[in-house]
Amino acid sequence: MKLRALIRTTWPLIPILMALLVTSFILILFGTSPKDALAAMVGGSFGDQSKVLQVLAFLVPLALSACGLLVTFTAGLWNIGVEGQIIIGAIMASWVALKIDLPTPLQITLEILAAMAGGAVWAGLVALLKTRGGVNEIFSGLALNNIAIILTNFLISGPWQPPEGGTFRGTQPFAENALLPLLGDSRFSPLSLVLAVIAFGVVVVALRGTFWGLKLKALGKNPKSAFLLGVSSEREVILALMFCGALAGLGGGIRVLSWFDSLRQSISGGIGFLALLVVMLSSNQVFLVPPIALFFSIVLMGSTTLHIRTGLHPSLGGILTGVMVLFVLLFGDYGKLFTRQKKISTPVIEDASHE
Amino acid sequence: MRIDLHDIRKYFGAVRANDGISIVFEGGKIYGLLGENGAGKSTLMKILSGFQPPDGGEIMLDGQPVKFKSPAHALAHKVGMLYQDPLDFPPMRILDNYLLGRDVRVILNHGKAMAELRALMERYGFSVDLQANIDSLSLGERQQLELVRLLAGGAQVLILDEPTTGISAEQKDILFESIRRLTHEEGKTLILVSHKLDEVQELCDYAFVLRRGKLVGESSLPCSNERLVEMMFGQVPHRSERPDHEPGNPIVELQNMTLVTYRLAVKNVNLIVRAGEIYGLAGLEGSGQRLMIQACAGLIHPVEGKYLLAGQDATRWTYHHMRAEGVAYMAAGRLEEGLVAGLSLAEHVVLSLPKHSFMVDWSGAKLETERRIERYQIMGTPELAVDSLSGGNQQRLLFGLLNSQLKLLLLEHPTRGLDVRSAEWIWELLYQRRNDGTAIIFMSVDLDEIIERSDRIVVFSGGVMSRVVDAKETSVDELGHLIGGQV
């Protein structure tokens, strides 16, 4: 039985391995040796200190968004709007960075709070549209993602354009004291990693230890029964989405304050969608999220080097992660695949619910 | 066409939905298939229409044994079923919907189809604007359309599942008129699945009655309603003697309450239920009992009238407000409306506790769950997921989740699917609640249970509530009259 338990816990690795196989096959089709590609990729992520730091800098916003999504997924919500929440977080942090000048610790605290508030409010809109307007969170999320992108473009080409004239590329760089303290020459801020670790801890405690987490779990598994057991779905939906929005907003803030040094056109670059894939891949297992997010960061950062060394397009990393998610969706659920579910066939008694 | 159903069996786990049913339907006649909720009539008709295969037995059409693979396959053999909720595509045009089931060529011949459809519509006296979209039609019109589609598909045997639920009286007349023409003039066979006795009496030539998966009776029609009721419910034993409980103050006071849903309206209900009183709601499925219970739980709100709970105006209270005020509601579907599959027993206990701290005290919750497991004799452990409990144990758990002091307990089918001993044990629990001053209102498909357990009974028929009947003095005859809608 021990072996079986081992297989069960390591099962999420199987789709990853299969995706590696399929990607290798694609590489061979393109006449590249998978071995060289792998070496280039690993070299691109771990080759030297700066590359490792780059991976970490990419990881932090991704992990933060994924932590937030753990909460919404638990509540049975598809928070596609996480991308927009990251962008609004970035915009709010930029706003503080551009318009306010305080001593560094205060400045950074304010930027972080603004980013979290921005993301939370943006997610709150999704929640209100869902609970009050009956709009599915997927659709409102997509719409708000677009609005957030348009808002960014408006800001960098309009009110916040650099004094030398708008280039559509970004605002002027923030003042030195507005940026997160960076490690050496890298774009990695140790402070952001500390924040991400704290956020992860908070999510673990919230989901496993608090009554709120239990309510979300019930709501995600069966909203009707949860309601009858006394769970107010409206309140919990709003709270779960705003919680996720705050973490995603924080991720966006960290991205402009460390990865970039200004508000740019594609500030998120799909990190929100990537975070959705991370959480899907983890099948909502909290402790699988950090390693999977790290793995994604390694693959994506590594594929940039791959491009330089082998001439393969850097989107190979995207292909690899995409194929992986497909495999997870296909046969990632160990329970459904192997344990023959003893179907407790409830008697088919027609319900009188059509009164 | 003559249909022989021979020894049809269908089991769902331990439940024998169809337990060796043999029936013969002749051409040119209208048959009523009667039975209470869960009697097996829908299962049988789903088998006959190819929706699901039987576990055993044989279907013969004009002496030829057939095995249907799908509803389309059954329709190719001229057996068509009209479902209670029409299986059409609401956002489509009528004509497209019609073509979808008929035309398999790449290029659609709209003109020909339109002429065909119009001719059929006229023949059976239906009038529907054929250019309209399906979602602009009433339920009755959609049904007519669906019927026409089956007829155009060549159906000689038509199965109608509760066709009159939710359609207007006028549409009902048109439907019945067309049914008579189809059978008596054109020789088609028609099977009406229903539990509305009046309609079956009015329309059908012959009735088969199912109970608990078996054919328990048949009769040519019309016959007396009591006879049908007796076949449907079985012989109802007389109420055993038990001491009366002295009822206390009014808990539920309904004044001219009117409830409306798109299928049914329950009008002008006046009722007083006192503390320590047990009220049984009888009636055929879908007659308004469930609406009434849900209204008392605050799940639906009356459009007119007043609801006083222990003297306070509770007309607009939400379900959660009611809960906080000591009202509990137990729905019929345990894993659908009550328990959360995937959560453990302990997690359910934590959710149901009236007071919560921010952090869950899991060790305390485990102890409390163990206490309840023992008290309610549940076969399980605190860590076990509720969906791995058996049905009876799930029911016990639901009782174990009720808070200690209740003003009002609302129950849908409290003992459905339980064996006699478990049912008895659950009623012992309910009597204890009653002795503590809880008012209990329950509905059940078991007339025996209602007569045996209630203090007072009201009967619903087509949304109309009967007078209050004293359970000690009533008889099956009386209830049969009331269930059939005769006052």
Straight-line N-to-C gap of chain A? 49 Å
Query: Treating each run of at least 4 consecutive H or I residues as one helix, how many helices of chain A?
Result: 15
Residues in β-strands, percent of chain A: under 5%
pLDDT < 50 runs, ≥5 residues of chain B = none
CATH architecture of the largest domain in chain B: 3-Layer(aba) Sandwich
The number of helical runs of chain B is 16
Q: In the CATH hierarchy, what is the class of the largest domain in chain B?
A: Alpha Beta
The largest inter-chain interface, given as chain pair and residues per side, is: A-B, 31 and 55 residues
Percent of residues in helices of chain A comes to: over 70%
Question: What can you see in these coordinates?
Answer:
The complex is a heterodimer of chains A (355) and B (487). Chain A has helices spanning 2-10, 13-29, 34-46, 49-74, 82-99, 104-131, 137-157, 190-209, 211-221, 223-228, 233-259, 271-281, 289-310, 316-331, 334-338. Chain A is mostly helical and 355 residues long. The N and C termini of chain A lie far apart (49 Å). The radius of gyration of chain B is 25 Å and the shape is globular. In chain B, strand 11 and strand 12 (265-274) form a beta hairpin. Chain B has 487 residues and is an alpha/beta fold. Chain B contains 16 helices and 21 strands. Chain B folds into two domains: 3-233, P-loop containing nucleotide triphosphate hydrolases (Rossmann fold); 250-483, Rossmann fold. Chain B is 33% helix and 25% strand. Classes of the chains: A mainly alpha (355), B alpha/beta (487).
Summarize the structure.
Chain A has helices at residues 2-10, 13-29, 34-46, 49-74, 82-99, 104-131, 137-157, 190-209, 211-221, 223-228, 233-259, 271-281, 289-310, 316-331, 334-338.
How are the secondary structure elements laid out?
The complex is a heterodimer of chains A (355) and B (487).
Chain A: H1 2-10, H2 13-29, H3 34-46, H4 49-74, H5 82-99, H6 104-131, H7 137-157, H8 190-209, H9 211-221, H10 223-228, H11 233-259, H12 271-281, H13 289-310, H14 316-331, H15 334-338
Chain B: E1 3-12, E2 15-25, E3 30-34, H1 41-48, E4 56-61, E5 64-66, H2 71-76, E6 79-82, H3 94-102, H4 110-123, H5 139-152, E7 157-161, H6 169-185, E8 189-193, H7 197-203, E9 206-211, E10 214-220, H8 225-233, E11 250-260, E12 265-274, E13 278-283, H9 289-296, E14 304-309, E15 312-313, H10 319-324, E16 327-330, H11 345-352, H12 362-375, H13 391-400, E17 408-412, H14 420-435, E18 439-443, H15 447-453, E19 456-461, E20 464-465, E21 469-470, H16 476-483
Parallel strand pairs in B: 3-8, 3-9, 6-7, 7-8, 13-18, 13-19, 16-17, 17-18
Antiparallel strand pairs in B: 1-2, 1-4, 4-5, 9-10, 11-12, 11-14, 14-15, 19-20, 19-21
Helix pairs in contact in B: 3-4, 3-5, 4-5, 8-16, 11-12
